[in-house]
């Protein structure tokens, strides 16, 4: 859980540390920068448009971010 919070904190917009929301654009940019050619922009767009925790929103809230990744990260460990 700490690693998920740490990644989320890195994605917060400068000066927005109290809002606990990150923009979908910033999330997509981050994933593309760390994954190189292994993830396509289309794939991220599909995730953001279809994931029940974040679809129809401009921002990803901390609770939604945790819900999206908490179980997969725990299973990967």
Architecture overview:
With 77 residues, this protein is mostly helical. The chain contains 4 helices and 2 strands. The protein has a single domain, classed as EF-hand (Recoverin, domain 1), CATH 1.10.238.10. Helices cover 61% and strands 8% of the residues. A two-stranded antiparallel sheet has the order 1-2. The longest helix has 15 residues. The model has no long low-confidence stretch (mean pLDDT 84).
What is this structure's SSE topology?
Layout: H1 2-11, E1 21-23, H2 24-35, H3 41-50, E2 59-61, H4 62-76
Antiparallel strand pairs: 1-2
List keywords for this structure.
77 residues; mainly alpha; Recoverin, domain 1; two-stranded antiparallel sheet; 2 strands; 61% helix; globular
Concise description?
By secondary structure, this protein is mostly helical. Helix content is 61%, strand content 8%.
**CATH-wise, what's the superfamily?**
EF-hand
Specify the overall morphology: globular
The low-confidence runs, each spanning 5 or more residues with pLDDT under 50, are: none
Domains (count) = 1
CATH architecture field: Orthogonal Bundle
Termini separation comes to 11 Å
Number of strands: 2
Number of helices: 4
* Proportion of residues in helical segments: 55-70%
- CATH class annotation: Mainly Alpha
What is the gyration radius calculated from CA atoms? 12 Å
Query: Beta-sheet strand percentage?
Result: 5-15%
Record the strand order, biggest sheet: 1-2
Give the topology string: H per helix, E per strand. HEHHEH
